[in-house]
Amino acid sequence: MTDLANTAAPGGGLVLVLNAGSSSLKVSLLDGSGSRLWQGQRDCPMAEGASPEAVLEEWLPAVLAPWNDAIVLAGHRVVHGGERFTAPVQLDPTVLAALAELVPLAPLHNGPALRVMRWLAAHRPDLEQWACFDTAFHATLPAEAATYAIPADWRRQGLRRFGFHGLSHQHVAEVVAERMYPSAAEIPLRLISCHLGAGASLCAIAGGRSVDTTMGFTPLEGLVMATRCGSVDPGLLLHQLRRGLSVEELDQALNGRSGLLALSELSGSMQELRTAAGAGHGGAQLAIAVFRHRLLREIGAMAASLGGVDVLAFTGGIGEHDDALREEVVSALSWLTPFEVMVIAADEEQVIARACWQCAAEGPVSH
Q1: What is the pTM of this model?
Q2: Distance of alpha carbon 159 from its chain centroid, rounded?
Q3: What are the DSSP E strand ranges found in 91-248?
Q4: Which domains does the chain have, with CATH numbers?
Q5: Nearest Cα residue to 176 out of 148, 201, 142, 203
Q6: Under a CB-based contact definition with an 8 Å cutoff, are residues 77 and 113 in contact?
Q7: How far, in Å, are 44, 52, 242 from residue 57 at the CA level?
Q8: In the chain, helix, strand, coil percent, each to 5?
Q9: Which end of the chain is more exposed for a tag (fewer CB within 10 A), N or C?
Q10: CA separation (Å) from 254 to 137, 251, 295?
């Protein structure tokens, strides 16, 4: 992807925000007001045996050079913070070691984030780095929403529902509150945030706090996604294991060969499936129908957790751009009490940058 540059002159303290995925890295540079001075994305191989450091070394130092002296903080999106990290944390050797222990909970994202952190620490040892967690926004989940009905000794191991896309859901909650009640500090607004993209989840938000969500212990639970299955009967998985499927094969199938891609046998891209469905492709039509059905079912569940809905907000690639899906969903929800519908551009980087400024001002917190 081509880098997008802004002609604004460097100056003042800047935050470098890094969002590492399983095969790419998104980077943004923001000033204290939240304005973007630069953003870019590169394919960056993160799999075991790959060398993302070579890509980082070839790319970032050169493009960031004009602002190098002004960059005072770096913030990383980390998908899984486990039970320990429920707020942004400044990186140090102890924290990095703790984050390494969490990699198995979200290997496609936590592992790459850790590699980027270590590369940046070597490249800019003077730069203060912070980790911001997708799970943190869901730290307010009540026990009944966070607890699985599994054996007590399992629960004591920390096996529970965490929820994800928290940085995105937090951004949606803040924008909705500002639009609805710009002069109010705290409003008991009942909001369902729909983050719909390659990864997809819903969040039930009451008064700005997460009270329920569709993802659980990992980002596999909940809605149908591009290549992830969403919720399935655990008995089906046991059946496949008993038939001889290895744990690794099961992992690959559920994370990389399921979802829209598996249903359509064509693509995990909703945009491509819309085109194919319009041309009569049966698999594409089925994929869209299953996606929509699961979405409607889970919106109903979130509405039940909230006791009604005041705002239904869409964000993410599908949420922002698939007008047909939004219209179908809103029409199918006519049984709900009247609610506002909003489309909000995803902006996790703003949330991360703001958190970094605030935490740096307050000083490190012991973890």
Answers
A1: 0.91
A2: 20
A3: 128-133, 190-196, 200-206, 209-213
A4: 4-133+351-362 (3.30.420.40), 181-336 (3.30.420.40)
A5: 203
A6: yes
A7: 11, 9, 46
A8: 45, 20, 35
A9: N
A10: 25, 5, 19
From the number of C-beta atoms within 10 Å of its C-beta (0-12, 13-18, 19+), residue 344 rates as buried
> DSSP secondary structure string, 257-314?
S-HHHHHHTS-S-HHHHHHHHHTT-HHHHHHHHHHHHHHHHHHHHHHHHHTS-SEEEE
Output the six-digit token pair for 31. Answer: 């000033």
- For 324, the token pair is 């047909």
The pLDDT tens digits for 209-258 are 999 999 999 999 999 999 999 999 999 999 999 999 999 999 999 999 99
DSSP strands (E only) in the chain:
4-5, 14-20, 24-30, 36-43, 71-78, 89-90, 128-133, 190-196, 200-206, 209-213, 311-315, 340-343
- Condensed to tens digits (0 to 9), the pLDDT of residues 168-213 reads 999 999 999 999 877 555 568 999 999 999 999 999 999 999 999 9
Q: Which of 43, 92, 126, 134 is catalytic?
A: 134
